[in-house]
Amino acid sequence: MQTTMIPAAPARLQPTGWQQHWREAIRDPRELLSLLGLQALAGVSEAAAAQFPLRVPRGFAARMRHGDPHDPLLRQVLPLDAELRPAPGFSLDAVGDAAARAGHGVLHKYAGRALLVATGSCAIHCRYCFRRHFPYAEETAAAAGWRAAVAAIRADHSLHEVILSGGDPLSLATPKLAELTDALAAIPHVRRLRIHTRLPVVLPERVDDALLAWLSALPWPVVVVLHANHANEFGAGVDAATAALRARGATLLNQAVLLRGVNDSLEAQAALHERGFAAGVLPYYLHQLDRVAGAAHFEVPDDEARALHEAMRMRLPGYLLPRLVREVAGDGSKRPL
Ligand SMILES: *Cc1c(COP(=O)(O)O)cnc(C)c1O
Ligand code: SF4
After folding, report:
1. Is residue 65 part of a domain?
2. At which residues is N6-(pyridoxal phosphate)lysine found (predicted)?
3. CA-CA distance, 230 to 71, in Å (whole number)?
4. Domain that holds residue 51
5. 184 and 321 housed in the same domain
């Protein structure tokens, strides 16, 4: 899929363009471990990697602590034996996407908002993600020249916000994104564009001049919902990317997933939201894990999650407190815990 959706880098103009960083991602767990000085690590699983391959941009790996098997960034990407243990209640379609599909790659679950599964590609593979089981190949909105998705949005006058999601929508080349927004610009009832993306965090090179020019020219207010789970995911490259997005008028929010061993402490949560704010990003949602098969070892029980959220409320300014929610199949919004 990547080879068809990521065009060849325009090598003459941008020898280190984002596609190059994309292609150079680490895909071998042994290489990642050896870069971190961790040759032999118990629990690392070839079989789990065969089910959902490891993928980590080198710049993201560079933000992991050397020699620390418990590094919170490493835990998000390392394939483990624990993923293969069956866990009751953890299933393949945990959020009911199969039932909510309204057209090719279009999910219409909530009032006024259409979510486009723009593409199945991601620059990083997060072990806790529902994406590991989603049948993207047949279902992406971009695959059919956006035609079915645009037709579905045009036909439903109740839709005012289009959410580009995935996979990671910014894994599409900028001209492909422009193809969609050009078509949407002709639909009067579309008033807002939202982009759910982890790329400015995990591969900030993606926020290049072409993307910024596209963003500046859009006819709607734009909300970019980033996805960072730990303060260490930020760095100079990410700060430059978020500053550039803000300079083009985008509103920046962050959603995180509450993950055992990654960000399940008050210190980690406070640091995440304070560091995000320093990069111009406000917290939006703190998600309880979607109960997807293979992710059970990341789960934090609801009562512990609520207690953590209460402690965060006492510690953080109100504007740095994310909403603690869970996605429940069939609900008309994310459900507050
Ligand atoms: C999460 C989600 C949205 C966006 O919900 P907000 O509460 O507006 O962030 C929209 N559509 C679908 C299908 C979703 O899963
Ligand atoms: S959709 Fe988001 S959380 Fe899932 S693998 Fe891609 S980047 Fe990670």
Report:
1. yes
2. 334
3. 10
4. 16-84
5. yes
